[in-house]
Amino acid sequence: MPRTAIPFTAPDISALAKSLRDQLARQGPTPGHVEMLNILARAAGAKNFQHFRARSVAPEAAVETPPADLARVEKLVRQFDAQGRLVQWPAKPSQQALALWALWAALPAGDAVTEPVFNARLNALHTFGDPAILRRALVSAGLVSRTLDCRDYRRVEQRPPPEAQALIRRLRRG
Question: Residue 167: is its pLDDT beyond 80?
Fold first, then answer.
């Protein structure tokens, strides 16, 4: 059976490597940062990280990102109060996904915290008193990682989609 090619992209492969290294460190002996870069680059079909980087900066056809649906963003802004806290868990899954990005943006980057600390941070970001639903949704969406024993939580660094970027900017403006 032929394999389906899946493109491997990351806005910052160095940050991805560091994140993977940190996560693997909890599992046992791990390769160093440079070896992780090479592992990831080889996984993407390059000879090594330098080859991957050279190939990625080569001019390619620009990929056009669809514009954000600002009407959808404005509709979701109504789910947040003046302080930018989520006042109600949206009913529609597409709105939930977008709301999660707003919560993700409010979490500190690179900070591994325990579940009680993470819950306290989530409680500061919503008013309906259910950090567990938000915690599980953030993990399921891949926006937050947690250890297998669920003791430590960390924001996963990635670039938000255009609508999420528009929502995050809109909430920061107030």
Answer: yes
Burial string for 69-81 (b: 16+ CB within 10 Å, else e) reads: eeeebeebeebbe
Q: 154 near 144, Cβ under 8 Å? A: yes
- CA–CA dist 130, 158 (Å, integer): 25
What pLDDT digit, counting tens, does each position of 13-60 carry? 776 677 667 666 776 677 787 887 777 776 666 677 787 777 766 554
Helix 49-57 vs helix 13-25: angle between axes, to the nearest 10 degrees?
A: 150
Domain 70-173 class in CATH: mainly alpha
Annotated domain spans of the chain = 13-57, 70-173
